[in-house]
Amino acid sequence: MRAGESVTDNASLEHPLVDFAGDGYVATISDAPLVAATEGLASLAIDAAGVGKRVLLVTGPESRVTFGMLQLLAAVRGGWVVRRSDGALRDGLAGHAIANFDEAFTTSTADAAADFLAPVPHAQAWLQITASVNHPAREETTLGATVELLAAQLAQAAPVAWGVNEPAGLHWTRENVTRFVRGRMPRESKIYVAGRGERAMTATMRVSRSARGVTEETKMLVALGGDEAVARTLIDAAPAVLGRLANAQSVLVASAFLLRGRADLSIDPVLAAPPVPVAVVLGPRAVQDLGIDLADVAARFGAFRAGRARIPSLVLPFTREGQGSWQQFVDLAGEFNTVDVTKALGLPGSDAGQGGAR
Question: Which InterPro entries match (predicted)?
Fold first, then answer.
């Protein structure tokens, strides 16, 4: 065996949802109107990863996926291909036409297919919040406070169910979630969260051990409703909500992006409106690593402190015009070296241009 060659490269996979296989991947075909991260698809993703293969979801142009399913595909570096009734294929997320399924995992410079440019019906504003917090690895530590705070303050909702696949069917309590995650340690845990309240919301949680304890990453999507005035009020409030999160939790990094989509938070295989940054929170370590002058960024960019007075976090709002703003984000990012920012945020690479539900 040559160096760097995996013993699983040519391994086969037997799973009831595998419809066909290609070079380095297995494909599953669904004609469901809404494809969720069900027990079957979750097990397929796990089994495929175990033999070094990626998962390709194949649907028709009318099918949509849940936020949770999109996170599952991202976690296993999976793909989504849309097949029209005439057999034409295109990437479900990037939109470019492909000649065959093997091209689903190759980089393409082809133009987007015409049907990818169709608008999302009845689109409304969404907020996507991503927050990573650190907990001490102690018996008294409980998880889930982040999703509860964000749901209450941005969706006027509360988590009601959780599970390791969709639909989430277990009664939500922070104690139940914590007990489940603790029983799996040191393995990573990924759970799906369903909420109920004034606005539609959905979330995922990923919990893993770290050198400093336990890292809890929450991704939440909130539909802001069709009333643009109400949506703008919630967008304006997002930086303060992230500040309250930093006051209550040990935040490593957090962000809020403005998106647009369906009221039910399902995701169409069509061109999405570009994500717009609304706010970013830099935790104490990131602030220190970047050598940020807190008074200077407060005066020039409207940033404000949150968290502990001695080692504060920094909230950076991008809502000067009453909505998210890439220009404010770019102005601020220009103050720092990209490599330094990537290191401070603990990222393997810069994903700023790829924000949002995708």
Answer: DUF6177 (IPR046175)
Interstrand relation of 213-223 and 124-135 (parallel, antiparallel or unpaired): antiparallel
Task: Judge whether 2 lies within some domain.
Answer: no
Residue range 271-300: average pLDDT?
89
Residue in the structure block whose two tokens are 């369906």? 262
**What pLDDT is stored for residue 15 in this prediction?**
93
DSSP assignment of 262-318, as one string? -TT--B-SSPPPPPEEEEEEE-HHHHHHHT--HHHHHHHH--EEEE-SSSEEEEEE-
Residue type, 61: P
Q: Which of 146, 121, 341, 320 is nearest to 249 (CA)?
A: 146
In a domain, 209, yes or no: yes
CATH of residue 87's domain is 3.100.10
| DSSP per position, 148-186 | HHHHHHHSSEEEEEEESSSS--EEP-HHHHHHHHHHHTT
The dihedrals phi and psi of 56, each to the nearest 5 degrees, come to: -115, 120
Domain residues for the domain of 261 are 124-345
pLDDT score of 353:
36
Note whether 66 and 39 are same-domain residues. Answer: yes
The SS3 of residue 228 is helix
Q: Give the chain's domain count.
A: 2
- Of 117, 138, 171, the one marking the end of a domain is 117
